[in-house]
Structure formats: C-alpha cells, structure tokens
Specification:
single chain, 211 residues, mainly beta, two-stranded antiparallel sheet, 48% strand
C-alpha cells in the first residue's frame, strides 16, 4: 500500500439489478445470481495527497457474471471532465483500489473482483442526489441515463422509507433504500428497471469508512 493518504466526503446513488433491499448487503447471494450496477458519486470535499478533489464527480458501470465475490467482473470507469491531470490520476487511483488498505473500501474490494477494466472515459457527468428525499439522476452522454426514486407502497402509493445500517461496512454507515432505472451504452450495456436503489453519504479514506 502506498503512503499517500486520501479522503472523500460526498454522496452516492447506486442502482443494481437486485430486488429492493439487495441481499448482497447482508452477505447473501444476489437476487438473480449475478450482479450489475450503475453508480454515481458527488465529492463535496476530498483530497488525494496534496491534490484537492472538491466538487468533482465519478460514475461507473459494473457487471459480474455471478456473485461479486466470484470475480471475473467488468467495469467502465467515468471521470469528471473538469478534473485536471493530477485530479484524474488521483481519482483513478482511488477508484481502482490503490493507496487503500486491502478490503477497507468498496473501491478496493470491487476492483479486486474485476478481470476487465475498460479505458476510463473523461467527460461531463450530470449528477444530482438528495439522500434524504431518495431522489437522484445521472446522465453521461453516450453512456448512462439513470434516475432514482423512493419506494412506494403498492396499495396507497405513499412513499416508503427504509434504511440499511452497517456499522462495519466498507462503503457507508447508513443507506436510504429506494429504487432505480438505468440504461447504459458503450462496452457494458444494461437495462435496469425498478430495481434496488441506494442513496448514501460517503465518508471514506485509505483505511475505510470514517465514523
């Protein structure tokens, strides 16, 4: 592990192909036996060494042929076009699990389960997420069209609120559950509809979740 230290404090929305709740969050197998997901991250404050990352965005498209822990995954990293060369390098190092204690963050864990990582795309990322209201949208031209919404009661139509609390998690402490729709283009083409959505505050560094 490198001696470079880093911190990210921001927000994310992730939409995967599992049913609401996502059994993978509880060490169970994915709903359909395989995993695919689309993720957007807004960095409100952050740094990698002396390189500031405030205000930058990340996105990723992921696909595994089975459960994530079985490996052989595929990923398409996307980095905010506003990032300069130093920021691009820093973000890619974080996203690929480098400069991180093994197993400490989702970046490191997921990266270790990938076989194919497509060349990173540097482009505009239109992303907004409101964790409290469970709403988000992510649009990346030629790659991602995604939205996130609250789960609704099928009888009354009222919005339902539920949380996942993982005191020892490697991604977040508390995530608001919701649902999402994602269509992707490029090397990884997905079409997710009304499946698990996760809205969370992220506070991470090279050693894991900051509590």
């Amino acid at each position: 592990m490198s001696e470079v230290t880093w911190t990210i404090h921001g927000r994310e929305f992730a939409n995967c192909n599992c049913n609401y709740g996502c059994p993978c969050q509880f060490n169970a197998l994915p709903t359909h036996g395989h995993c695919c997901a689309v993720v957007g991250i807004q960095i409100d404050r952050g740094h990698h060494g002396k390189t500031k990352l405030d205000g930058l965005r990340l996105a990723g498209i992921f696909r595994w042929p089975g459960p994530i822990h079985m490996g052989s995954g595929e990923a398409q990293p996307i980095v905010d076009s506003r990032a300069d060369d130093a920021q691009r390098d820093a973000l890619l190092r974080i996203m690929s699990g480098q400069d991180t204690k093994p197993g400490a963050t989702m970046f490191n864990v997921f990266a270790s389960m990938l076989t194919t990582v497509h060349p990173p795309v540097f482009t505009g990322i239109d992303f907004a997420v409101d964790v409290e209201k469970r709403r988000a949208h992510l649009k990346v031209k030629d790659y991602i069209d995604q939205r996130g919404e609250p789960i609704v009661n099928p009888v009354t139509g009222a919005e339902f609120r539920g949380r996942i609390d993982l005191p020892n998690g490697f991604e977040y402490t508390i995530a608001e559950m919701g649902r999402g729709w994602s269509k992707t283009q490029g090397p990884i083409q997905l079409d997710l509809a009304d499946s698990y959505g996760q809205f969370a505050e992220l506070h991470l560094n090279q050693d894991g979740v900051i509590h």
